[in-house]
Amino acid sequence: MRYAKRYTRIISARYAALREREERDQQARCRVARSDEDFAKAESAFSQASLDYARAKASGADCEAQKAAFEKTKAVIDEICAKKGYDLSLHVHCKNCNDTGFVGERLCACAMPLYLALVKQDSGIKRIPKVTFDDNRAADTDCRQSKQLCVLYDKMREFCDRFSDTRVKFILLTGQSGVGKTTLAYAVANALLEKGVSVCFVTAFEFNNLMLRYHTTNVSARSQYMDFLLDCDMLIIDDLGTEPVLKSVTKEYLYNVVDTRLVNGKKTMVTSNLNLEELMARYGERTVSRMTNKTYSLTKELLGDDLRKFRF
To answer: pLDDT by residue (tens digit) across 266-295?
Structure first.
């Protein structure tokens, strides 16, 4: 995934900068130690003893004397450092990855907070409430959709838990305003982000504006408006049907994004106040048929009361 590669480059660069900073600090501490005449003499003796020991080992001759001299000069340096508080070591913050951010090709646990921050930065998720599945209060009310919402919350939790291997590629939630669709979408977005899944959360109005900019921008600069929509692991479009219908933009680009993501195995979630017939009339059969294909889609219509009228 293009964005995962970008995150890898950023993380690698951040950790390279960390290592460079620690190396500069180490060099500065060494310069302080070398300004001490006793340390400078001991280091010179140690360097010569190290060279003599290496040459003796390479020659294959008996090198016990050289080894003893090497260990003796090393002990002198250690004694001076301990006595005068010289710290010559290169500080490493994470022993698992040696401050590279990766263990082999796998992201180290120490780099995960940075990875999640990068994912959230691209997702636009900072502007939505920090809603979780545990915040579902439908069971505590006498709203008509209480049971249906509880079942749906469980299904969405399972979807997030099995994100990498679930058959569901498209989720369509319809129903009148206030029945709980958007709040559930928030919970899905937040749950996936906590797992390190890249999520893009946009309203239908924002999506429409992005597509308008894409449509009216020079080809060389278009990618900034489309790439993340196509490439993120999970795209969530909220309140589809509230945006104006723009000629050659709204219907056409919605279809292209939905179709491209399905072809590439990407997952998408859409909420709408419109029912299936209204969606069909507004966006066309070929778009809605892709949204509701039973092979890979989960389509639910929430019927009930406006939850904003209830006190939780």
So the answer is: 999 999 999 999 999 999 999 999 999 999
Tokens of 135: 């915040």
Instruction: Say what the pTM is.
Output: 0.68
Residues in the chain: 312
Residues 85-121: pLDDT tens digits? 999 999 999 998 999 999 887 778 788 778 767 766 6
Q: Which amino acid is at 94?
A: C
Separation CA 178–CA 199 (nearest Å): 23
DSSP the chain: -HHHHHHHHHHHHHHHHHHHHHHHHHHHHHHHHHTSHHHHHHHHHHHHHHHHHHHHHHHTS--HHHHHHHHHHHHHHHHHHHHHT---S---S-TTTTSSSEETTEEPGGGHHHHHHHHHHHHTGGGS----GGG--GGGS--TTHHHHHHHHHHHHHHHHTTTT-S--EEEEEESTTSSHHHHHHHHHHHHHHTT--EEEEEHHHHHHHHHHHHHS-GGGTHHHHHHHHHSSEEEEEEETSS---TTTHHHHHHHHHHHHHHTT-EEEEEESS-HHHHHHHH-HHHHHHHS-TTTEEEEEE-S--GGGS--
Tokens standing for residue 109: 């646990």
Neighbouring-strand partners of residue 203 = 238
| Distance, CA of 245 to chain centre | 33
Is the CB of residue 108 less than 8 Å from the CB of residue 100? yes
